[in-house]
Amino acid sequence: MAAPAALQRSVVSPAGRHTASLIFLHGSGDTGQGARTWIKQILSQDMVFQHIKVIYPTAPARPYTPMKGAFSTVWFDRYKISNDCPEHIESIDSMCRGLTDLINDEIKNGIAKNRILIGGFSMGGGMAMHLAYRFHQDLAGVFALSSFLNKDSAVYQALKRNDSVLPELFQCHGTADELVLYSWGEETNKMLKSLGVSTSLHTFPNLNHELSRTEIEKLKTWIVKKLPAEAAKTSE
Questions:
Q1: Which residue intervals define the domain Phospholipase/carboxylesterase/thioesterase in the entry (predicted)?
Q2: Among 187, 188, 181, 219, CA closest to 202
Q3: Mind giving me the DSSP string for 97-127?
Q4: How far apart are CA 143 and CA 173, in angstroms?
Q5: Measured on CA atoms in the order 103, 138, 218, 189, is the torsion positive or negative?
Q6: pTM, two decimal places
């Protein structure tokens, strides 16, 4: 069987020397370029860092059950948009393999694994939690914006059997979200915390299923805290 094609991606290069990488996973039906443009509109400029490369990959189009099987750029399939149903684990695990290739590309470029952050919006945040907490527990951190995990998530099952140090989770959610309910995000946060993840949950009153400038600014501050600039090595 042919190896999966490399994911298409939109990249924002660091302004200076590249010593860390950030992977941002878009929401369902979007693209990497679309997520980048959305953030650019909110900030009036790209989300750019001195030393961190920002990578926005695009999910391959696949049939999506909540859209009656129509093709959509989604990271995985869902039986329905609910936190109270089984996960479509086959499609989740398949995409974890594709995203592992993306992480390995950065490592081949000389970036240490603990200098790589992954996260995303909505489904992208859910995907990031599966990827990091089940397969890549040595990443620098995870962020999930307007995201959730299903009640019996494979993530929870994996963490029940885990005793290693886990990446920190930075979570944001709007209280007015009508697609991914705030309570789903809150429950995800509580479950992960109870399983040993260091978590924060930033609440945004009146924010629907969207991003806000304050939220992205908070995220940027957290990113630089987790991936600080490295002092230039002096040659003696």
A1: 10-225
A2: 219
A3: HHHHHHHHHHHHTT--GGGEEEEEETHHHHH
A4: 11
A5: positive
A6: 0.95
Q: Mind telling me the catalytic residues? A: 122, 177, 209
Cβ contacts of 190 within 8 Å, gap of 6 or more = none
Q: What angle do CA 113, 5, 223 make, to 5 degrees?
A: 30
Structure tokens at 90: 């086959």
Give the H or E element holding residue 193. helix 182-194
pLDDT in tens, 138-170: 999 999 999 999 999 999 999 999 888 999 999
Q: What's the N-to-C CA distance of the chain in angstroms?
A: 51
- DSSP type of residue 78: B
Q: How many helices (H) and strands (E) does the chain have?
A: 6, 9
State the Cα–Cα distance between residues 41 and 69, nearest whole angstrom: 31
Is the CB of residue 147 less than 8 Å from the CB of residue 165? no
Q: How many CA atoms lie within 13 A of 124 on its CB side?
A: 26
Residues 6 or more apart whose Cβ sits within 8 Å of residue 161: none
Count CB-CB contacts under 10 A for residue 86.
12
- Note whether 180 and 141 are within 8 A (CB): no
Q: What does the block give as tokens for 94?
A: 């398949």
For residue 224, give the amino acid letter: V
Q: What is the pLDDT of residues 80-93, one digit of tens each?
A: 999 999 999 999 99
DSSP codes joined into one string, 70-106: EEEE-SS-BSSS-SSS-B-HHHHHHHHHHHHHHHHHH
